[in-house]
Amino acid sequence: MRSLYMFAIMPPEEVAVIIHNERLIFAERYNCVKALKPPIHITIYPPFEEKETIEKEMMSLDAWAAMQSPFSVALKDYSFFKTRFSPVIYIDVEQNPVLQKLRSEFVSRLRKYITVSTDFGPYQPHFTIGYRDVPAAKLPQIKEEYSVRKFNAAFEVKSIFFWKYVNNHWQTIHEFRFSGADKVPSSPST
C-alpha cells in the first residue's frame, strides 16, 4: 500500500502558538482558512507518495541525525510567492547556511530510499500563514498590509520529523533527533 509522507522541522510550542495566532489573524481578516489545517512547520522535504515499507527503511537516518548539532533559526517579517494555484503569504526564515546545508545533506540521503523530485525550485524555508484559498484579487491589499507588518522570533532546531498523512491529518511516525537534543514536540497539532 502507498501513503503520503513528508519531512519537517517543528518549532517549540511557545513559538508555534505565536505563529498559529498569526495564521488566525490572517484567516479572520481575509476569510482564508486553508493554512490553519496543516501543522506549523518548515518543510525539509515536501509531501511524496511511497510504499509503506519506506517507514522502516527511513529509521536508518537516525545515525545521520545523531551526527547533527542543534542550531538556531530566526524568523523575520513576512513575504510572498505565487504557486500555480494561489498566492502564498508566509513568515520568512532568515538566510541560514546551516539550515540550507542540513536540508541539502538530508535530501542527498533521501536519494538512497526514494526518487527525489527536483520540480520544487530553490529551497525557501518559511512558515505559511495563507495559501490555497487566497484570492489573487486580494493579493495587492495583503501585500500592502504584510509588507510593513513586523514579525520576529527565533528557536533552536533539534530534530527533523517524519510525517505520514492519515485520516486527513499529518501524524508523526518518527523524530530524527540531533546530537544532544532534548525532546521536542512529538506530534503535529491538526
Describe the structure.
It is built from 5 helices and 8 strands; from the N terminus they run E-H-E-H-H-E-E-H-E-H-E-E-E. With 190 residues, the chain is an alpha+beta fold. The strands form 2 sheets. It has a 4-stranded antiparallel beta sheet. Strands 5-4-3-6 form a 4-stranded antiparallel beta sheet. The protein has helices at 13-30, 54-58, 61-66, 97-110, 139-146, and strands at 2-9, 42-51, 71-82, 87-93, 126-130, 152-157, 159-166, 169-177. The chain has a single domain, classed as Cyclic Phosphodiesterase, Chain: A (Alpha-Beta Complex), CATH 3.90.1140.
Question: CATH H level: which superfamily?
Answer: Cyclic phosphodiesterase
Whole-number radius of gyration?
A: 17 Å
CATH class: Alpha Beta
Summed up, the domain count is 1
Number of helices: 5
Give the spatial strand order of the biggest sheet. 2-1-7-8
Weakly predicted, low-confidence segments: none
- How much of the polypeptide forms β-strand, as a percent range? 25-35%
As a percent range, the share of helical residues equals 25-40%
Q: Which fold name fills CATH's third level, the topology?
A: Cyclic Phosphodiesterase, Chain: A
Total strands: the figure is 8
- Main sheet? 4 strands, antiparallel
User: Helix/strand-derived class?
Assistant: alpha+beta
Shape, principal axes of CA atoms: globular
Ends apart, CA distance between termini = 24 Å
Q: Quickly give the CATH architecture.
A: Alpha-Beta Complex
Order of helices and strands: EHEHHEEHEHEEE
Mean pLDDT: 92
